[in-house]
């Protein structure tokens, strides 16, 4: 049950928007187009099996692992926040 200005299902709508934003962010980071034979960061050859498994791959396993460990910042979903509606 919603209260105040929020309609019924507002919490679920906010959760759905957050999940949808996460999916779109992940898809935007996915490689597209032709891949590389050599890693764009270290220059080592990317194994054929990796290139076949991940079309569009641009980094070797070691460099991609290092990239994945870096923190990624993203905004907070404020679509359902009353504060954002008041401004």
From TrEMBL:
Q: Which InterPro entries match?
A: Znf_DskA_TraR
Which keywords appear in this protein's UniProt record, sorted alphabetically?
Answer: Metal-binding, Zinc, Zinc-finger
Q: Tell me the domain of life.
A: Bacteria
Report dksA C4-type zinc finger ranges.
39-63
One Pfam family here: zf-dskA_traR
User: Zinc finger DksA/TraR C4-type domain: which residues?
Assistant: 34-67
Protein name, UniProt field: DksA/TraR family C4-type zinc finger protein
Recorded source organism is Falsiroseomonas oleicola
